[in-house]
Design brief:
The protein has three helices and no strands. Helix 1 crosses helix 3 and helix 2 (28-42) runs antiparallel to helix 3. The chain is elongated and about 55 Å long. The chain is mainly alpha-helical. Helices cover 64% and strands 0% of the residues. It has one domain (11-85).
Length: 88
């Protein structure tokens, strides 16, 4: 189901789209795919084997945690946006 008509886009929605690298129009399937890709990319545990330096590892881990929170938030915003703009 492709949502073709977007009567409003707020800065919050546009920021969420930027976070997940989406452009209008996008479907719920598109949103889910980008969400999953970004979650895999920024998973904090992914950085475990990248360095032997504990300080550098923790910096990368914290960055991954922060980015993951942004991704979850962006998904929630865009999911609500799609529901609000869905045509009957």
């Amino acid at each position: 189901l492709m949502t073709q008509h977007f009567p409003f886009t707020t800065p919050k929605v546009l920021d969420a789209m930027k976070t997940l690298n989406l452009e209008i129009p996008f479907s719920l399937d598109d949103l889910r795919k980008r969400y999953e890709q970004n979650c895999r990319l920024w998973d904090p545990a992914r950085y475990a084997g990248h360095t032997n330096n504990p300080r550098q590892y923790m910096q990368m881990y914290k960055k991954g945690e922060l980015k993951t929170k942004e991704i979850h938030s962006a998904f929630a915003i865009l999911q609500a946006f799609l529901e609000a703009t869905r045509q009957p």
